[in-house]
Design brief:
This protein is mainly beta. It has one domain. 11% of the residues lie in helices and 38% in strands. The protein has two helices and ten strands, in the order αββββββββββα. The protein has helices spanning 3-16, 180-187; strands spanning 28-33, 44-48, 54-59, 65-70, 83-89, 99-106, 116-121, 129-140, 146-157, 164-171. Strand 3 (54-59) and strand 4 (65-70) form a beta hairpin. Helix 1 runs antiparallel to helix 2. The protein starts with a helix and ends in a 14-residue tail after the last helix.
Length: 201
């Protein structure tokens, strides 16, 4: 393991050790990110409805699920408002169901045989990406609305292994957020995607 990856893991574990209070949150977006990530900008963030954020879930046109999350209704300071987008889609335009989705590429530009994923926020997004996600819970209503959802995701900006974003979305769900030790194990999966090391770092 490179020294930089080891240091990132140590920092991540120390930050997440204070995060256990969200383990049973009903509706929350949580993410942590590498300092080399353009999207996450090295931040660790958790937002909930109690923080003044609206969570808007919908079905997307690949039979997947998309989220738009923002504090526009409660934050009058236009310069300080925050927003996030999350998109998930299964391969072959299949209905998104619980399972592990490997080799994801940027939604909505993924090839038919690959899952789609996109995490962006506060005006920052990727041109290309690699990643994977796990859907633990999803239920749909009679009018195709999203009733509950729980997923964890890992996204590598532009496919670079040191530009990672790692997060969880829970929507009307009591499925627990991973404990720090579990998230550290996810970091160990970095080499499995064939992702690139950024040159000049």
């Amino acid at each position: 393991m490179s020294r930089i990856r080891f240091c990132i893991m140590v920092v991540l574990l120390s930050v997440l050790s204070s995060f256990s209070g969200y383990a049973k949150a009903s509706t929350i977006l949580y993410y942590t990110s590498s300092p080399f990530s353009y999207v996450g900008d090295g931040e660790t963030v958790a937002v909930t409805r109690e923080d003044g954020f609206g969570f808007f879930a919908s079905r997307n046109y690949y039979n997947g699920v998309s989220f738009y999350i923002n504090d526009y209704a409660t934050n009058p300071d236009l310069q300080d408002q925050r927003s996030f987008n999350l998109d998930f889609a299964a391969p072959y335009n299949a209905v998104l169901l619980p399972g592990h989705y490997a080799d994801a590429t940027r939604f909505p530009f993924q090839e038919e045989a690959y899952p789609g994923l996109s995490f962006s926020g506060n005006g920052r997004g990727d041109n290309t990406l690699l990643g994977y996600f796990d859907v633990y819970e999803v239920t749909y209503g009679v009018h195709d609305e999203v009733l509950t959802f729980a997923a964890d995701f890992v996204q590598y900006d532009e496919g670079f292994e040191d530009a990672w974003n790692k997060g969880s979305i829970r929507y009307n769900s009591d499925y627990p957020i991973p404990e720090p030790s579990t998230l550290a194990l996810l970091l160990a999966g970095l080499p499995l995607l064939g992702i690139r090391k950024r040159s000049g770092r």
